[in-house]
Amino acid sequence: MSSSRALPLAAVLLLLAAPTIAGPRARTRTGADNPSTRAVAEPQDAPEAPETRLVMSKAIVCESVGGFADYVGRPKTGLTADEKLLIYYEPRNFATQRVGRRHQAHLVQDVRLRRRDEKVALWSKDKVLDYSAKSEAPIAQIYLTNTISLKGLKPGDYDLDVILHDEVAGGRPATQTLRFSIKPAAVEDGDEPDAEGPGRKPGAPEDQGVRPEPPGLMGGASTRPE
Prior knowledge:
Blueprint: H1 2-17, E1 55-56, E2 60-67, E3 70-73, E4 84-89, E5 91-92, E6 97-99, E7 102-115, E8 121-135, E9 141-149, E10 156-166, E11 174-182, E12 216-222
Antiparallel strand pairs: 1-5, 2-3, 2-4, 4-9, 6-7, 7-8, 7-10, 9-12, 10-11
């Protein structure tokens, strides 16, 4: 009785110890190759690319300009129509090219004059400044100045649009707007103010328009050694 019970138990033990031949053993995924447990990397912000498009420093109304970063700013008290508007600014990220043994930058400026916050231009001109800087050393810095006559403009607030093109790189121009004001001229002895403003003599002809004289322009450049 006891021996008949031992045989089934031995058979069971043999079956449990026998190798499995039904198929290959399933591979357990862990760590990096298990989608359910794989760590998700946090998105990394791409490093900021250096600025490459043409830009300008803020245009400054000046009393005088002596060179690169050498100017005397004008107090914000307004100008009279008898004065000239002198502005200073620095192009940045401009392109250069080799012409023979020299480096060359080529910048062209347009200008547009408007009454404050109005869209219609009172006066505009393309290529009022066509400036080429040439140097045997790489050109690192350029400054540009405009001297614009205000003759014929009435007292009020104005916007001057400065549009700068990089002729070497091409692409979209850089644009900025300079705000300035024209104040009435001081009343001199013998002058009588009238409805048009102080400083006008009785019987003097009215303004023939608001177009200022063509601007006088100048520019300059500085270079750095290789």
